[in-house]
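[Meeting: bench + compute handoff]

Bench side (C.D.) handed over the final construct sequence. Compute side (W.E.) agreed to return the predicted structure before the next meeting so the bench team could plan truncations. Sequence as handed over:
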Amino acid sequence: MTALAAHPPLSRRTPLRLVALGLVPAVILVGAVLAPRGPDPAFLPVMTDRPVAIAQDHAIFVQRHEVTIADWNRCAAQNACQLDLRAPAHLDPATTPATGLNYQDAQDYVAWINRKTGHTFRLPTLAEWDALAAPVLPAKQDPLFTDPALTWASSYLTEGLAPRILKQQGGFSTSPDGIADLDGSVWEWTQDCYAGVAEGMDPDRCPAFFVAGEHVAAMPYLVRDAARGGCAMGTPPAHLGMRLVTDDPL
């Protein structure tokens, strides 16, 4: 009797084994679904091969092209960016800059791509952008009027020389560092606050930020269309877009 109790019939043991074996893949599947996913290198933007020197002790890696419509819509598809952008009929979303972006849109994209890649990207400062673009931007023209009261008139007549039509990436100049379209028709958001006399303002409370292109302009942070939304300083830019930089190699 003891031997029979120690070794129950096969028909009673087999179902338990099958159930146990069936639970193993189920547990593995549930674990795979619930386990947090790590950074995805497929989302990493194409950056300069080498750091670009900004000052004697400061260098950054720079995105070769502006963020494109296809880049942006991957963020929108995951509900991390608000807008769903469409390219003009004759342009490819994969090579057309994402435009119509305000400062908050740009920061939403930065936060999303940092989560996706596990890397720390950011917008450039105005000083960094100026240094990057210096080799491809035309020299600043002398003012047409020497009277300080007519500074606005000089700016109005000498700015606006760059083409304002939206082109695919590579449609304008490429800098010696391999950065394209810094002299193009898209003004790029920087992280520098324009606060008038209120120096040192908290960026979270800043009403406007500098955008950089053919000239520097200060743009209210919620404006997506500079022509309609107004410009706090300078001639309104043609298009508002963005480019990423990082302090660390990928």
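W.E. noted at the follow-up: Confidence is low (pLDDT under 50) at residues 1-21, 23-36, 141-145, 150-158. C.D. will use this when planning the next construct.
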